[in-house]
Amino acid sequence: MKKVSIIGATGYVGIELIRLLHDHPEVEIKDLVSKSSAGQLLVDIYPQFRGSILNDYQLRAMEDFKPEESDLIFTALPHGVSQNIVSELYGKGTKIIDLSGDFRYHDVKVYEKWYGVKHKSPELAREAVYGLVELNREKIKGAELIANPGCYVTASLLGLLPLVSFEKADLNSIIIDAKSGVSGAGRSLKENLLFTETHNTMKAYSPGVHRHSSEIEYVLNQFLTGKYKKTFGSLKDQIDLETEEKAKILFTPHLIPIKRGILATIYLDLEEQSSGSEIMELYQRAYNKERFVQVLKDSLPEIKNVAGSNYAQLAFRYNKRTNRVIIISAIDNMLKGAAGQAVQNMNLIFNLPEETGLEATALFP
Amino acid sequence: MKKVSIIGATGYVGIELIRLLHDHPEVEIKDLVSKSSAGQLLVDIYPQFRGSILNDYQLRAMEDFKPEESDLIFTALPHGVSQNIVSELYGKGTKIIDLSGDFRYHDVKVYEKWYGVKHKSPELAREAVYGLVELNREKIKGAELIANPGCYVTASLLGLLPLVSFEKADLNSIIIDAKSGVSGAGRSLKENLLFTETHNTMKAYSPGVHRHSSEIEYVLNQFLTGKYKKTFGSLKDQIDLETEEKAKILFTPHLIPIKRGILATIYLDLEEQSSGSEIMELYQRAYNKERFVQVLKDSLPEIKNVAGSNYAQLAFRYNKRTNRVIIISAIDNMLKGAAGQAVQNMNLIFNLPEETGLEATALFP
Amino acid sequence: MKKVSIIGATGYVGIELIRLLHDHPEVEIKDLVSKSSAGQLLVDIYPQFRGSILNDYQLRAMEDFKPEESDLIFTALPHGVSQNIVSELYGKGTKIIDLSGDFRYHDVKVYEKWYGVKHKSPELAREAVYGLVELNREKIKGAELIANPGCYVTASLLGLLPLVSFEKADLNSIIIDAKSGVSGAGRSLKENLLFTETHNTMKAYSPGVHRHSSEIEYVLNQFLTGKYKKTFGSLKDQIDLETEEKAKILFTPHLIPIKRGILATIYLDLEEQSSGSEIMELYQRAYNKERFVQVLKDSLPEIKNVAGSNYAQLAFRYNKRTNRVIIISAIDNMLKGAAGQAVQNMNLIFNLPEETGLEATALFP
Amino acid sequence: MKKVSIIGATGYVGIELIRLLHDHPEVEIKDLVSKSSAGQLLVDIYPQFRGSILNDYQLRAMEDFKPEESDLIFTALPHGVSQNIVSELYGKGTKIIDLSGDFRYHDVKVYEKWYGVKHKSPELAREAVYGLVELNREKIKGAELIANPGCYVTASLLGLLPLVSFEKADLNSIIIDAKSGVSGAGRSLKENLLFTETHNTMKAYSPGVHRHSSEIEYVLNQFLTGKYKKTFGSLKDQIDLETEEKAKILFTPHLIPIKRGILATIYLDLEEQSSGSEIMELYQRAYNKERFVQVLKDSLPEIKNVAGSNYAQLAFRYNKRTNRVIIISAIDNMLKGAAGQAVQNMNLIFNLPEETGLEATALFP
Fold first, then answer.
1. Total domains, chain C
2. Does B309 touch chain C (CB under 8 A)?
3. 3-class DSSP state for residue C4?
4. Is residue C12 part of a domain?
5. Which one of B49, B182, B200 has the shortest CB-CB distance to C200?
6. Is-contact B137 B130, C-beta < 8 A?
7. What are the tens digits of pLDDT across the range C58-83?
8. Would D14 be classed as within a structural domain?
9. Is the ipTM reported for this complex over the cut 0.85?
């Protein structure tokens, strides 16, 4: 049994990691570190663990935490904070999976521009391996430090990557209209997250300027310039993606009155006429061996079909009238968009079957 | 007091009309016609009217209804059905406001293509006046038959019209990603409208092929070819919109787990660089005298700020990086998107102040 | 036009008062006083008023407020705070309707015990008139200071009062299981009021020890000892309620994931067998002339049938097996449970028809 | 690996069984029988199973189903229908767990009175073992036919049983006010289960006359007359429960706008004064060895803490003022209230650890 710990255990992502690790047959939870709740029983904050093996688990302070006793550490901390902790932990033989935005850009200039924070460990940012499993599986297996992708980014990239490698796609036309449940905002005490302000309503926020825009665009462009080997559904056997062409995307997130789940509706122009079957071939090539990505044909993704599971569901429609493709992508933001993908990464690092501890299907109704 | 009647009184739109007319100081409800519930008391189906002046109101069958006793009739019926009823009622001196899709296209070929139904009264379709008040106020005042716009269409056109007359807008780039509460689907017994199937989830439907696509596009193109006089926010004093250029839009609706409200997020490319202030000027010209359209500057529309009211709230963001405009438009689908706009039309026809009976602000929280 | 002001205008009750007064044909809003938001535009905090006559309304600080310029002042403040403000305002000729718990008990000892706060104006508490209109209409008309009842209390008393005067009722058997929407908790920044903590779940709170217990019991016992004249549905023509018998109630509130509305399910033992028709007679006597109380016979109250309106809907079932009565009472906690009832009180004080500005029916769906 | 099948696989309970069995390490799903959907792929009806081992699973018709190929069959069918199927399946060596109401009463007269249906297999009803694990564990282990308890009944009995054996409890005073999520109503096409009719509202139904009343009362009285051996928390070492005294309960269910979960608030009079610690001792005796029942002390149960898990959470408050006990009980109606408890029963029958496949904690947020 591998020993794993979580720093930042009492945020929503932390608690979701605990839930998954609690059910995982090959790992043992070592330490749960929480700044705000050190010394308290886990069940006094999250009563859903009462009766489980975590019934008597006491949260630990950072100063009492010995990283070397764990085989792997998840850091589920705010950006800015995470870099400091990770740079202390790094290089001591313990693997790290970081769930913040701090290590998702090799080039910290992009990070600094969009996050408005100075990056103190640019060399670590260059070392970090981007943890979108379907894109980067091989590198993940040997990584010391994983940057777990953003939730919106996961939903968007899974939908986009096959088409981005399609030579007929207009890389400047990408528009992503994404909708997220409220858990994405974390357990923060803000007036606009109160039930009375959020229920039975909906809004857009940060239209065109959300941080995840930059992450989506950054990874797409890394992909286009050949930083990621996999051809990802190209219709040719070999394709030279070392291109000067760059994708420029427009991303607008919305808050919807549900707890979990992201639905991203993505729009893309084609430069020549295509067909549904040609595009379907791209998606099937990209994902037909993937355990956690489903490409639907006759139906459309719905959040309820993935919420509570690590699956992504995708569908697309080719709109001949406008020569555009509409791609719809649904994930659980807490699972494939955060803790589930982190465990998938952990499984790869530990050389376990990728789906270990992640086989639950959506909780419905 | 004017006498008004409703045919199709027990659907959700019918009941919303009853609610508004019940509170309206200048009209009196004459007959409420319902095929399915004729003979029953209104309060036995909709108990919210208990105690009101409609406490003892009995629903009437079509065969017992005498149209000539009403000054105005609202028809709130399914498309296809409505044409038959309206063509019987028309021309007898009673004004008609039809809330179906049947009379929204002067050219019935477009209707027939998108609705898959033969139109039996093409001449009436040509007579009908399109009831988007902000676009067509003058013609509405003298109309015999109003085609009340679709809910998605109202939200979309109010957001788009000022920009469509902007010479820098790429009329082929328009993408509308719209989200609607479940009341938009009416009171129909379908499995996918059950609470357990709709709550805490979200989905897209009819991506790119929803009927309201055609209505949005049809009206935009009528507008572009000068069928509607108003310049609608053009920055020049005079603008010749008699253009051959046509708009082609892509529209995708989504179902969200709220009762009422539509949020439309609209994307549009510009052909040249512009600025927020230049675009704001267009919106202000278009709407600064409009009672029911609010253009927000520093905040964004939310459904809760309009649900329960006849207001539309709009905002836009000019995204310099991609040279696109993101427009966000929020309405209550039952009010500005249906019954409220119908009453606004009625007020114009009766030469009443436009806001009579429509002054309620959103019900919040 | 009467001039009215609100102190505490930006809480949820304050904002609901503004909404009602904005639509009220016989009053004019004079000052909106807010400690936290003085100097700001109302629409910057509550954008739903954009476009209305309150579009340019600026919130005022207490020190800039001149009470004598208003005919009536609503105080919508936390308990404890309200007493101080009301005692300053009182006696200067301006009527006051207080929506806090501070003046609901003539005997401040009860207040002090349940609220854990010293009462600084016991003589004012003795002067205050309890504003449950259906119980106390005549006294309200001439009152200087109204104590507007608690939301749970209104739902409970309307359901209970007819039966409490019934000689067969066991006054020690009353159990009230009440369920409230989240707006009842106000706009307070508490973790347990976040959407993620409140949606798709339910809980009880303060079982048996909520403050409203004491208010329900206090008023019932005042009623039993003849402090309120009306016989309230007794089956005898004259009934001497000056009894030594006292009611002792058990009250448990619950939080449900809706915005507005209270449903109270009330249980009461009978000492002798009775019948549905005998009990119905009590309810009909009590309420058949009441504009805002509906007694249902064949159906049961639902929150959706009253939410958005000032109506209460009641029904009861006599359970012969156990010789108990189950009473179900539904109100909108923001309206009949707070702001609506306050306006109803105001109408009485101003000698207006009781329903003025309160005729809206429930907003449905 | 044991082979198990489900008859009635596509109702909500059926689908929840599939989800649990899919994750269960010791069983293999053999046949999924569905009358309405025979021949279809499971994933075409419930897309959440796409990508799982059930990806290609085809639903089977009853006539193609061979019961003898399964070790155990779950019947998840409407009452009335279930008796017919079960009586055909019974006695052929395959164990049966029935989730309908058909076999929950040894005395079919009670069943016939409350269900309004003639029972065709009274002898089987006498054979069936009542599957409330905490009450009846030993008998369940050897049973051929299990009657899985009703959802409301499970929540109520777990809360009540310890106190019912308490000699100071007034057995005629029990009032149960229960609240259930909408999944409890199944996937039935009824107007009152539409999202628009159910969301943001709440109602009571069948007050005092719901079928589960009779099941709760029946089991309580069986228990009181010594039909179940366990003393269930009595404070004496030995207690003679063979009493003539009978419990008479009053039960009122409510529908709340959540998907899953039941919260039951139970009221009970005591005949003598007691104390919180005395009562706590009863609950601890009853449940301190139970894996799936948690007794909370300082906090109260909430549905979110159990939804998605097989746990029940209980708390009580002794109200000294009225000498009553308030018990609050929360379960997931689909799990501990249906499919989870059925799997717990199956584990006992197969001599597996009771928690096998049931260790998931609540899905939160």
1. 2
2. yes
3. strand
4. yes
5. B200
6. no
7. 999 999 999 999 999 999 999 999 99
8. yes
9. yes
